[in-house]
Design a protein that fits this description.
By secondary structure, this protein is α/β, with parallel strands linked by helices. Helices cover 39% and strands 13% of the residues. Strands 1-7-6-5-4-2-3 form a seven-stranded mixed sheet, sandwiched between helices. Strands 8-9-12-11-10 form a five-stranded antiparallel sheet, covered by helices on one side. Bound molecules: pyridoxal-5'-phosphate. Residues 87-89, 92, 114, 116, 172, 174, 176, 206, 208-209, 229 line the site of pyridoxal-5'-phosphate (PLP).
Length: 417
């Protein structure tokens, strides 16, 4: 790929301006790396733990130690980290079905829950498929305020309306596919305190894309349960599959009964040779997340200067790894995704096309030239084909490769004009 000269000049301006931003990103990565290393030392992580178990997986010390390490690092009492969890939606579904019972209310306080949860909740799909609604669990929500803030008065009103039936207060940390702000771990802590002063509900956080962006996780700030995917941040680009749930002892006990069976919980589940990748990924994760944040900040600078609305701005604090750029038309969105694909290490020769993705309402265009299929701690972009034609992108295993792909996408956009 040949980049035009003015693009290279812009890239150099970006890196000069971003030096203090990158330094702050590195500082957070150091704090988090230290916490991971201290936890590995405390739990005596060793070669023997990387051997996999088979069958029932009783006594899999590697699995149990990784669980304990996740719990420590995330400021939780317990955790389950498993290759049997197929993706983030599955991990979230385990959390919801694990805690909710007939007659309960799930109250989402960050607006509509992530698109792929709609069918599990029963907001979409067919009656009788086994959604929460089929089991007599109802769903209600409080939208975010127009400035992106939490509507505390709205939460108070809904807690009064539903009373003790509210079993889960649900918070989505990252913006997902919405044009909204991402919450910091501290902001989530504030919501948790507010809820706990008024209700016995579990405070549950969809933590996808948030891990290691702040110096602590929502569980260290008062949330009862956080949930995420290992082919995003905490897998560090090394985990080949998996998800995690971390939280209070009781919350983890209940969700472990949903993961396997009541009475069996976390005692079964062979790791099948995935322990090494999951440990190594957790070790890399704070650094890899920093690479992704630098890639996002670089992109934010470049596309803002090219005239596209971006969020966050290059010099704003980042509480997740997602960057959005608003293209305003489908051609710009598609050119951007095709550029990201062309600048990726894998499948750089393929041309992304919009498609009807399972679980999503609109057609979606995706770029993912990744070593692990669909991994979005690796540089990847997706955008629903609906106005205002926003690209959501994230990841980048190394800043250098992320920068190359961003410049390739910028060149594709310039060539469109
Ligand atoms: C990725 C993500 C999920 C889960 O998506 P999967 O594709 O099933 O892993 C849920 N919520 C948010 C906010 C996410 O970013």
């Amino acid at each position: 790929m040949d980049f035009s000269n003015d693009l290279l000049i812009l890239a150099s301006e970006a890196e000069t301006a971003l030096a203090p931003v990158f330094a702050e990103i590195d500082r957070i990565a150091s704090v988090n790396t230290e916490r991971v290393l201290r936890s590995f030392a405390a739990h005596r992580v060793s070669e023997a733990l990387f051997a996999g178990s088979t069958g029932y997986g009783y006594g899999d010390n590697g699995r149990d130690t990784l669980d304990a390490s996740y719990a420590d690092v995330f400021g939780a009492e317990a955790a389950i980290v498993r290759p049997h969890i197929v993706n983030g939606t599955h991990a979230l579904t385990i959390g919801l079905f694990g805690l909710l019972r007939p007659g309960d209310v799930m109250l989402s306080v960050t607006g509509k829950a992530y698109d792929t949860l709609a069918e599990a909740i029963g907001l979409a799909g067919k009656n009788g498929d086994g959604s929460l609604a089929d089991f007599g669990v109802s769903y209600d929500e409080v939208a975010l305020l127009t400035d992106g803030g939490i509507d505390f008065a709205g939460i108070d009103a809904k807690l009064k309306e539903h009373g003790a039936k509210v079993k889960i207060v649900f918070i989505q940390r990252s913006k997902g596919y919405a044009n909204r702000k991402t919450l910091s771990a501290d902001e989530i802590g504030e919501v948790a305190r507010f809820v706990k002063a008024r209700s016995g509900a579990f405070v549950v956080v969809d933590n996808c894309y948030g891990e290691f962006c702040d110096e602590k996780e929502p569980t260290a700030c008062g949330a009862d349960l956080i949930i995420g995917s290992l082919i995003k941040n905490p897998g560090g680009g090394m985990a080949e599959i998996g998800g995690y749930l971390a939280g209070t002892k009781r919350a983890i006990e209940l969700v472990s009964y949903r993961l396997t069976s009541v009475g069996i919980g976390a005692e079964c589940g062979a790791s099948l040779g995935q322990n090494r990748n999951m440990f190594r990924g957790f070790f890399y994760a704070p650094h890899t997340v920093a690479q992704a944040k630098k890639t996002a900040a670089f992109a934010s600078f470049i596309f803002e200067k090219m005239g596209y609305p971006v969020e966050p701005l290059w010099n704003e604090a980042r509480h997740d790894i997602i960057q959005t750029v608003v293209f305003g038309d489908p051609d710009g969105l598609c050119a951007f995704c095709r550029g990201i694909q062309a600048g990726s290490p894998v499948d750089s020769y393929v041309t992304p096309e919009p498609w009807d993705m399972p679980g999503y309402d609109d057609k979606v265009i995706m770029a993912a030239g990744t070593f692990v299929q669909g991994s979005s701690i690796e540089l990847s972009a997706d955008g629903p084909l609906r106005p205002p034609y926003t690209a959501f992108f994230q990841g980048g295993l190394t800043y250098e490769s992320g920068k190359y792909a961003i410049l390739t996408a910028a060149q594709f956009l310039r060539d469109l004009k």
